[in-house]
Request: fold
Amino acid sequence: MPTTSTSPAAAHRRRSRRRRAPPARQPWCCSFGLDPLSSTGRSPVPAPPRAKPAAPLSRRIRSPGRVSPIDEPYTDAASACPSARLSSVSEYPLPPLPPPPPPPAAERPKGTLRLRLVAKGLILEVDEVERVRRESRVVDRVLRGGGSSCGEVAVEGKVEVWAVREVVEMMLEEDGEVNAMRRLARGGVERAISLLEVSFALMFDRGVNNCLKYLEAVPWNEPEEEKIKILLSQHSSNEAASQDLLARLLPQNSTSPSELVFELIECITKGTNNNARKELRTLVDSILSRTPIYVKRDKELDKTSIYRTCHSCLNCLVELFEEASDLSPTDQTTISVGKGPLERIYKQVEDLNWLLQILVDRQMGEEFVDLWANQKTLATMHRRVSPMVRYELSRISATIFIAMGSGKLHCTGEKRLSLFQAWFGPMLVDFGWLRRCPKGLNMTTLEEGIGQSLLTLALMQQQALFMDWFEAFGRQGRECPNLMSAFQIWWRRSFVRPLVSS
Reply:
């Protein structure tokens, strides 16, 4: 292969041409009058001397975003002739500015109603002032007084926030009566009472009428009834709207409670179903008892009517004992519960004991002690009838002894002595039957009641009665009441530590 020798001068010329060759340039977006790279546009100032020869074009660094090498001098010439560049730029007129928007129309201030809950310390704002104003007389009065569409209404009472909001919603909705009843039924009685209270406070007549109609048609419990009474008493001016509701709270007849109680007692004493009579007696006792729910007053019970019923029961009891005493001893022994006079005797004794308990609770039983002590006919017939019949009389005496021994029945010493003279002996005889058939009677309480009642008599009167008991206890044993504790007290008071007169 032939070799060609190249002279150093030719190589130097080739390098000089390669160095002077201008780099490829991007086309200009604007036409300038002078080419910044032409000889006429260059600056006459010579370039500074360089210590080293410039590197080849292919290895020179270009600045980002530029189309020419960093060290090319045309950039300085172009910056030095700004007038030449700007004179060749095509000038276009600026587009006209759009017309300014018209100024917004002045908005009318929107009215706001402020409902201030005094008890809660909160304020609710309502925008639909005019609609609320048409429904609420309080809001209308406040806005008329202020002369503007804004105002503040104070809602007194312990009302709930949700109740105020719901009442305002009821004002804004044009619901018919049927839809209003359905709305109240979903909430129940307690919620309807709260809405009624807010409706009363805001004088929202449509809401008041709807709540009253709903409450009149549904049952209440006792706390709800008390709330309704308080609301109606505080807003008595709406009596016309609440007339139907008041009919459930105000008695319309002139019958006194004492007359009604006497009618109830008469119905019980004339009844024939023993289980039903027992339940009804419990019901009447709850009505007459001293509890926070039922407040008992003197005018609720007529003493004369009660004693009239007691006399009627005693007369019937005398007739039944006369019927029983006419029977032969064999017939009296065969009398069973639920047949013949025994059932009717038991019924009369139960009625008398129940009436006596009512009188004792009302502190009106003193006359019954005198009434029972004077039953000479029954005391005489007590000896002639069978023990299984006559011990029913001692059940009445047991109720009196327990009441006297516990201090619930107060009567004079003469009446107490008459009671013991008439019924202490029959009690000693019938105590064994009472123990076998107590029928709810507490025998220990009865023994304590007899002993304490005996100790209320004079010491000489106690001595005669205690000697009768001592003799009966020696014969009958536990068939007699145990009065040993009362006997020891009587002995100590009489002989061990008697009161010495000065």
In short: The beta strands are 113-117, 122-126, 151-155. The first strand starts at residue 113 and ends at 117. The chain has a mean pLDDT of 78.
